[in-house]
């Protein structure tokens, strides 16, 4: 198992995270320094948020995209109309490409769901030519996602299972300050730079926020799916109360920060 992210339905993922990945993608592309004429690898493409943003951003020669989930791969292929883009199922820790194939290897919101994240970084470095760039971004679950922490802290207050979820959620790989940078250096990349990227997640109302989680998408949804009927009702009510925060249901906006790191292949 090379991914700890669970997905049931592409549309559910889009509501949970895909729409926000699309907002983050242009910031990440700028940070990665993508230039025209390059061959790019998108590692962990999901439904194509970064892949299709790359196609719109620069006159690239080739975009290869891989993901571990057949659900994501099927949906990304269905959406693709660009002949430069080739999408396939593959493992981030064992990339099916020759050494030095690409000018850049990018991973947007992926490495924190790869248990052997350092191995994925090593593979990204391997398939990039000398002088090329490896770049990645992950959400700061501990300190940079107040909208999700709102739910995580709520369920942690309700049960021991919720507290265990919080421990896993807040300390996934690559999320602590400097952790990705250290890994990039350890895997032999040079001129390594780490920064923060921020977007806002804007929800229409509680249902817009809660529906994909309630349907079992993502790590929070996986936890909610384990609850019995009574626990589920108590959790739904408590999270709604946290979302509404004493005001009528309606739009809410949360700032969200991702750690981003890039390095050069020597």
TrEMBL record:
SUPFAM superfamilies (UniProt xref): S-adenosyl-L-methionine-dependent methyltransferases (SSF53335)
Methyltransferase type domain span: 41-135
GO BP: methylation
MF annotations from Gene Ontology: S-adenosylmethionine-dependent methyltransferase activity
Membrane-spanning ranges: none
Keyword Methyltransferase: yes
Keyword field contains Methyltransferase: yes
Protein name: Methyltransferase, S-adenosyl-L-methionine (SAM)-MTase
């Amino acid at each position: 198992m090379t991914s700890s992210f669970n997905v049931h339905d592409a549309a559910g993922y889009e509501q949970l995270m895909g729409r926000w990945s699309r907002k983050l993608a242009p910031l990440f592309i700028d940070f990665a320094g993508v230039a025209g004429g390059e061959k790019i690898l998108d590692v962990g493409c999901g439904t194509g948020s970064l892949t299709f943003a790359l196609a719109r951003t620069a006159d690239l020669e080739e975009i290869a995209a891989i993901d571990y989930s057949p659900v994501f791969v099927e949906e990304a292929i269905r959406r693709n109309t660009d002949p430069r883009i080739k999408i396939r199922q593959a493992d981030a820790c064992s990339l099916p490409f020759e050494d030095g194939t690409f000018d850049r290897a990018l991973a947007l919101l992926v490495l924190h769901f790869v248990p052997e994240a350092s191995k994925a970084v090593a593979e990204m470095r391997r398939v990039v030519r000398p002088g090329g760039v490896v770049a990645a971004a992950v959400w700061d679950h501990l300190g940079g996602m107040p909208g999700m922490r709102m739910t995580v802290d709520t369920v942690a207050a309700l049960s021991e299972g919720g507290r265990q979820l919080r421990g896993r959620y807040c300390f996934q790989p690559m999320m602590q300050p400097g952790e990705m940078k250290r890994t990039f250096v350890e895997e032999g990349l040079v001129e390594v730079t780490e920064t923060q990227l921020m977007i806002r997640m804007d929800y229409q109302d509680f249902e817009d926020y809660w529906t994909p989680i309630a349907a079992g998408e993502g790590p929070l949804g996986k936890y909610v799916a384990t609850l019995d009927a009574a626990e589920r009702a108590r959790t739904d009510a408590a999270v709604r109360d946290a979302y509404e925060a004493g005001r009528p249901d309606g739009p809410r906006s949360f700032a969200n920060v991702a750690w981003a790191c890039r390095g050069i292949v020597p």
